[in-house]
Write a structure and sequence with these properties.
102 residues; mainly beta; Metal Binding Protein, Guanine Nucleotide Exchange Factor, Chain A; 6 strands; Met_Sox_Rdtase_MsrB; Mss4-like_sf
């Protein structure tokens, strides 16, 4: 969930260990929950990922992810996310999103 707005962004089902030290996902929970912005800072050409609702910086997306899952790696700042365990999703008001996790 977006730490600032509570909007669902990524599913732990799509999380994987990319070996980069950052939480990495193959895709957002839905295409419309994130926005993309060209980022040429620090002498690099990257694509920034921002939350739709809060317009907060989430991280970057790269084209070096698992090929069998679309080839994208969403490298996300863990501090921008709030993890809700599956068994707490109903209690926290996110029961309708259980289908994205299992």
């Amino acid at each position: 969930m977006d730490i600032t707005t509570g909007e669902p962004l990524f599913s732990s089902k799509d999380k994987y260990d990319a070996g980069c030290g950052w939480p990495s996902f193959t895709k957002p929970i839905a295409t419309e929950v994130v926005n993309y912005k060209k980022d040429s800072s620090h002498g690099m050409n990257r694509v920034e990922v921002r939350s739709r609702a809060g317009e907060a910086h989430l991280g970057h997306v790269f084209e070096d992810g698992p090929r069998d899952k679309g080839g994208l790696r969403y490298c996300i700042n863990g501090a921008s996310l709030r993890f809700i365990p599956y068994d707490k999703m109903d209690e926290e008001g996110y029961g309708e999103f259980k289908k994205y996790v299992k």
